[in-house]
Amino acid sequence: MYLDDKTPPNPIPEVTIEAEELPCLLLVRGAPQGRVYPLEPGSITLGREPGNTILLDDPSVSRRHARIEVAGEKPEIQIEDLGSTNGTLLNGRPVARHPLCQGDLLQIGTYIFKVTTCDPTQVHYQQKIEERIQYDELTGLFTVKTVLAYTQQEIARAHRYARDFSLLIFDIDHFKRVNDTFGHVAGSALLRELGGVIAGTFRKEIDRPGRYGGDEFLV
User: Fold this and answer.
1) What string of pLDDT tens digits covers the 219 residues of the chain?
2) I need a surface site. Which of 35, 41, 118, 207 has the fewest CB within 10 A?
3) Which of 108, 130, 152 is the last residue of a domain?
4) What backbone torsions phi and psi does residue 128 show, to the nearest 5 degrees?
5) Angle, helices 120-134/144-161, rounded to nearest 10 degrees
6) How far apart are the C-alpha atoms of 187 and 137, rounded to whole Å?
7) What is the domain count for the chain?
8) CA gyration radius, the chain
9) Is 81 left (phi over 0), alpha (psi -120 to 50) or beta?
């Protein structure tokens, strides 16, 4: 090649490395519509009670409605109804236990999922976004928006089953004095430490501890 040669060199071809896709459930009816749930190896439960892997808070869904088992390198996926009131429907038909295949439509109460595949990178990105929405960055507890949404669910559940529930709101005494005396860095460290204590004291998926605002907390 001469120095005065204006011919551009051959471009280097772009190489796209595609991550191996994961089996997943895509929520096509119900809220939040469009959410992706990866089907990772192990047991995945669906139901309306806290403690289920996929929480579906709706009266049409039983407390522990169904279970999905994922096993093997090229995963074999099975859906099993757990004696639900309204049954588990696969492509419009009730099933007790049945394999899941790509393209199947799975109905749990009023929720409908499509069995498909998803890019692990997209799933990871979605999970990070959801974490930022759900969890307070400083304390690691639920955000006020999340904890108030859970509170509304518990109020509705209490009315539905005519039972009581408890709501705990508390704050840090003289927290302003800490900020004024030692600075906001010390105040933030105190909130972070207290968040860890609260998280270790209460049950995350049952008691739902959250930061209500400033130095106020709600459980």
Assistant:
1) 444 444 444 444 443 334 478 899 999 998 777 888 999 899 999 999 878 999 998 889 999 999 999 998 788 999 999 999 999 999 999 999 999 999 999 999 999 999 998 877 766 676 677 677 788 989 999 898 888 888 887 888 788 778 888 899 999 999 999 999 999 999 999 999 999 999 999 887 778 899 998 999 999
2) 41
3) 130
4) -65, -40
5) 80
6) 15
7) 2
8) 24
9) beta
